[in-house]
Amino acid sequence: MSQPFSSSFSALQAHFQQPDKPGQQQTHNPNGTAVPSGRNHDAYPAAEFQLHPNSVPVQPRSTPSFQPDLGRDLPTMPRYPAFGLIPEPTNQASPPRPPEMSFGNTASGITSMQSFGPPSSSVFANPPVPALSAHTPHGGEALPLDSAMADASQIMDEGEGDPMDTTTDALLERQQLLFQDNHPLPKLPRIRGLSAKHFLGETKSNQSPRRRRGDTKRRGPRKAVEPTGDIKYRLNMASNAYMDGNLDEAIRYVEDAIRINAETYRAWTMLASFLHEKKEVKQVFTAKVIAATLQPKEIDGWIQCAELGIKLADEFPEEANEFLQQAIYSYSSALRVDNKHRPARHGRAAIYSDMGRLKSAVKDYTVLVDTCPYDVYALRGLARISILIADIGAQFADRPKAAIEAYRLCVAHFRENGLDSDFPFGWEDIEMFVELLAYVEEFQEAVHELRLLSRWHLTRSDEVFWDAESDDREWDVDNIRRLGVASYQDGKYPASSYGSGLPLELRTKLAVYRLKLGEQDEAMRHLDFIDPDSSDVPDLLSDYPHLLLEGAAALYEVNNLALALRYYEPLRAPDLLDAESLVRIGRCYLDAGDKRQAEECFTAAIDQDESNSEACIDARYELAKMYEAAREEREAYILVNEAIRLQEAREQARLETNDEDDIDDDEEVDGEVAAARASRAGMETEPRAKTAKRPAKPRGERPKKESKPKAEPARRRPKVFARTEELQLEEKRRANELAEAWRAVRDAPASSETDGDSQGPPSSFMAAAQKLVDDFRSYRDFYPWDKYLAHLGLDQAREKVMARRGNRNLLAMVERLSHNLNPDDPNAERQPKQVAISYRGVPFEEWLDLFLEYAVGLAQTGRFQQAYKVCESARDAVIFSKSKENMFLIHVTWAACALRGRDEETCVAVARWLMREYQYDTDPFRMFSALSRLCLSPASWYASGPVQKYILRQIKLMDRAIGDRGSEDSGDEDEASSGRVYPSKNLDITLLMLYGFILFTSSSFTYALNYFLRAYTLDKTNGMVLLTVGHCYVHYALKRQSENRQFLLSQGFHFLHKYYNLKQSSLDAAQRQEAHFNLARSYHAIGLPHLAARFYQLALEDVPDDSANGIMGRNDLKLEAAYNLHHICWTGGDVGAVKSIAQKYLVL
Q1: 468 CB burial (10 A radius; 0-12, 13-18, 19+)
Q2: Is residue 853 packed enough to be buried (19+ CB in 10 Å), middle (13-18) or exposed (0-12)?
Q3: Where does residue 133 rank: exposed (0-12), middle (13-18), buried (19+ CB within 10 A)?
Q4: What are phi and psi for residue 52, nearest 5 degrees?
Q5: What is the mean pLDDT of residues 419-445?
Q6: Per residue in 88-121, is it b (16+ CB within 10 Å) or e — as a string?
Q7: 376 and 429 Cβ atoms separated by less than 8 Å
Q8: What value, to the nearest 5°, has the Cα angle with vertex 592 and ends 591 and 598?
Q9: Torsion angle, CA of 161/167/171/176, rounded to 10 degrees?
Q10: Do residues 85 and 58 lie in contact, with contact meaning Cβ atoms separated by under 8 Å?
């Protein structure tokens, strides 16, 4: 505690404590004389002190006020006129006393009781003053609090106030100032129990209740701070600028206000308005979201943000996911404010449905339907999602039944209370209801409900006699069969309320359900309305293609393939069939014996490849069976392996879908989903029982999904069963396309001809090159069988293992084909003709140039993995692999692509191939060093273990050859011995230096010196060797493990000065400047800046002519030397030199 604080505190203590003997305190009697306070407290019986909220003890007005003796060093305790005398507690156990109180500017709540310990910061607060009840010890009556305060004010006004109060106020003010400058004393713990009850007047009734552990009540957001004056000024200036039409200036003012305080709601709303004027919709959306966050209780703001996010998702499809996620967050924020806000829940459920988050969507729709059973919009969404989610797992199999019950309640409500204009119940709802019944295979109930609800919708609810009829004569267009019913009254209702009034969609549903029930004759009466042979096919395809597809699918499922083909065929011309429908029509053609059409349908289904669907797997399987029967085992083997791979990917996707949990954290999880999550560990892996599938819509009505780029090349599939003339026409058409592509490639500038800073070759070149490269890679005879399968993404060993867990038919076929084909047998390979010098009339050298140019173009556009695939395809082609020069060009291009992508691992792999193929040459080692140097990445692969082992084996081989102990190559660590012999009798200095640099990079300076010194003995005038040996000594001296640092530094600078003298004798200024800089940098590194500065100055004076930069960059080191010298001068405090160097050399 500081001395001033101690003095003030001591003065306060002296003011409130007795100055007499230890253990004895003074009190004052009514006459103003001090009375010693001891063990006897008969004058102040403790029982007379009780707490009362409405009265305080007051002395009679005739009692003279106490005048303290200011001349004493330790003043006695004052007597306050309104309260009389309050005794001091003694060391004996006695009942607690109430704290002393005062009025006006006096220190309220300061007590003189020593048992409370030192005063705390709460002393200077103004707590409520409790009153004292009953009679005072001197016989004074208890007066109300207002009366006591009035009497005290009157006494003070009459000049009878205590002079010590002024002193007390001054001391308290002084101590409060000291509390601000010094650390306050620690606060006392809060009084509890009986003491709190007597002294603070606390009872259970006035205590604040504690929050229980399970209490989930949340506090609201804090109140927004009133904007300061500078913010208001900027916002007003922004408004004025906007009114003047200066939008950019207005935005600058608003952004300045946001910079001062980003929580200003008005600033963000103004910014959103200004950005809206500039048509910057993305920034508007961001500003609106932040503004809504600042006012989280405003639901309209969140709804506007969500609607804007949905609009932006449509405008910018590439960023649709981010905008939809933000829209979900906005709707969720609105629901946190009002959990019953139906538009917000509708919007969020719709977004969940579009994004495929079915669990969350069905949860929101369920809440909407539970709160409003006749909300048809929510019912439609619930019905659609229930059908989709039922295919995920067995735990959601009862969702369609729940939707059916919800529809029953809705229908009962409307039939009892009439239709509601806000929730129109129409034909769409009837169709959805009966489709739910058909999904759970209640076809008879679906027929009954369709007829009943259609009759009710056509205002014929009283004709219940039609329910007794087993056929659908009620919905005939004519009256021939209806007149046979006795209860039917012709003319009671218009003809439009019977057959012609039934929509064609529901009539098709009736036909499908009758087919499911085995009533084909009754079903064909309805299908005649959409019969392609008797109807106008163009109008039918333009208006009702989905009805044709639904009818054909129903006929196919009841095994009426010939009739189903009649409904399928009109849909092939406009390409309205999806993959599943193409597989079905292909099987129909197979049943009819038309293999050519079946092959086309299966191939078209494979080419669509809709997200690895089951139909694509079935198409490959059916096509593989056809090719196996036609003795095309190779193509069949490829197809069946593709099917196995797709099945594996589909199974993996299904498992990931089951494991994901997209339930919102802000709401409770419903019982069914919670049960599903609890039983997830024991989820069935077998597919559930097959139910009636919802008929697929035509391809034209489905939203087109963005296709993902394929890693494998597009393969041209042969047509085995096509006619000869068709094959010739197809081949001619293909040749014309490729010839046009070659013209586009030759006319467009290649990647090597473009500027290095450009974005790569033009798109026309890339598109044409991709088409040509894919055609070359799809030619099977250009590759060995295993390489060809590898390029197609097929691994034979892995596929056989995975097949054991897949379809048994696929397993049996792949085993059978592998034995019959035996692709590992070299005799089974169809070798390319040796006399071939071109492909499609283009020489192979030009094809190789195309491969390399296309790979470099892919690397320039950032598609490095695809560039590696192209280089790998060129390497594996038997046409190119026979030429050593072609392989060298391929690997150099591969290294160039890796350099563009800063892929050190690939650079090192290519360099090791060069060192292995051109063994015992110096240039591959230099190539390895150059690639590692040019790759802008950490030197992790350069000094990796495999590289060190390989280089060390080359050194050992060289040493054995020089020492006549055998020089046969031991091969790579992963390969067998190559059997090659080291041809030379001289040591390779480049190999020694390379291994020394690898050890130097690993900080193994002691081992690196061995190889550097061996290189020094071979060439003592090599500047690089001298510089490297010197630096190795210096760096080794700077390590903590060095034993003789002075010796190492002397050795290092001996070699450095030899290097310096060698370079100084050169006529090239660049080499002299390099020597100045390297020596200066070495002195700078060991902490000798006065020596370093001299050589830096020499580097600034001896400047080379660097007008033409070299291939490795500029030669002038003036900027580096000036920057380092600038730091030395700054550290030494030479500000003038710092300024002059910066202005002369470092200012651009």
Answers
A1: exposed
A2: buried
A3: middle
A4: -145, 135
A5: 92
A6: bbeeeeeebbbbbbbbeebbbbbbbbeebeebee
A7: yes
A8: 75
A9: 40
A10: no
Give the residue among 594, 580, 670 at the shortest CA–CA distance from 626.
594
Q: Structure tokens of 463?
A: 């004709």
Give the rounded percent of residues in the chain with a pLDDT score beyond 70. 68
pLDDT at residue 432 tops 90: yes
The answer to whether the beta carbons of residues 1120 and 1136 sit under 8 Å apart is: no
Distance (Å, whole) CA 442 – CA 305: 44
Three-class secondary structure assignment of 960-1002:
HHHCCCCCECCCCCCCCCCCCECCCCCCCHHHHHHHHHHHHHC
**Three-state SS annotation for 282-300:** HHHHHHHHHHHHHCCCCHH
Closest-CA residue to 548 (of 505, 490, 603): 505
Give the contacts of 1142 (CB within 8 A, at least 6 positions apart).
Answer: 1126
Three-state SS at 578: coil
Q: Is 1061 exposed, middle or buried (0-12, 13-18, 19+ CB in 10 A)?
A: exposed
Find the helix or strand (DSSP H, E) in which 403 lies: helix 399-417
Q: Return the closest-CA partner of residue 823 out of 880, 869, 783, 872.
A: 783
What is the rounded distance in angstroms from the CA atom of residue 1144 to the CA atom of residue 270? 48
Distance between CA atoms of residues 207 and 1061, nearest Å: 90
What's the rounded mean pLDDT across residues 834-860?
Answer: 85
Tokens of 436: 């739910």
Which of 774, 770, 778, 768 lies closest to 717, judged by CA? 778
Spatial CB neighbours of 444, under 8 Å, sequence gap ≥ 6: 517
Length of the chain: 1148
Tokens standing for residue 913:
């191939």
Q: Is 323 helix (H, G, I), strand (E, B) or coil?
A: helix
> What is d(CA 435, CA 453) in angstroms, rounded to the nearest whole number?
13
Any idea what DSSP says for residue 905?
H
| Of the candidate ranges 201-215, 729-743, 878-892, 1058-1072, the one whose mean pLDDT is the lowest | 201-215
Tell me how far CA of residue 806 lies from CA of 534, 643, 687, 809, in angstroms.
45, 10, 12, 9
Which 8-state DSSP code applies to residue 613? -
The structure's pTM equals 0.57
Give every CB contact of residue 448 below 8 A, 6+ residues apart in sequence.
467
Which tokens in the block code for residue 1036? 């080794």
State the sign of the Cα–Cα–Cα–Cα dihedral 371, 373, 378, 383. positive
Helix axes 1069-1085, 1023-1037, angle to 10 degrees: 10
Radius of gyration of the chain (CA): 47
Q: What is residue 89's three-state secondary structure? A: coil
In sign, the C-alpha dihedral spanning 482, 487, 493, 498 is negative
- Looking at residue 155, what is its pLDDT? 39
- Residue carrying the six token digits 């390379």: 994
Q: Kindly state the tokens that stand for 407.
A: 């529809």
Can you tell me the distance from the alpha carbon of 547 to that of 549, in angstroms, rounded to the nearest whole number? Answer: 5
Please, how many CA atoms are within 13 Å of residue 1002, restricted to the half-sphere of its CB?
18
Residue 665: both structure tokens together:
């954290």
Residue of 832, 734, 736, 841 lying closest to 782 (CA atoms): 832
Q: Are 762 and 749 in contact (CB under 8 A)?
A: yes
Of 923-937, 972-986, 1053-1067, 1108-1122, minimum mean pLDDT range? 972-986
Strand 842-843 versus strand 838-839 pairing type: antiparallel
Burial of 881 (0-12, 13-18, 19+ CB in 10 A): middle
Instruction: Report the C-alpha gap between 827 and 845 in whole angstroms.
Output: 28
Strand partners, 142: 57
| Close Cβ partners of 569 (under 8 Å, ≥ 6 residues apart) | 532, 585
Block residue for tokens 């005063």:
119
What tokens were used for 886? 């072609």
**532 neighbors 570 (Cβ within 8 angstroms):** yes
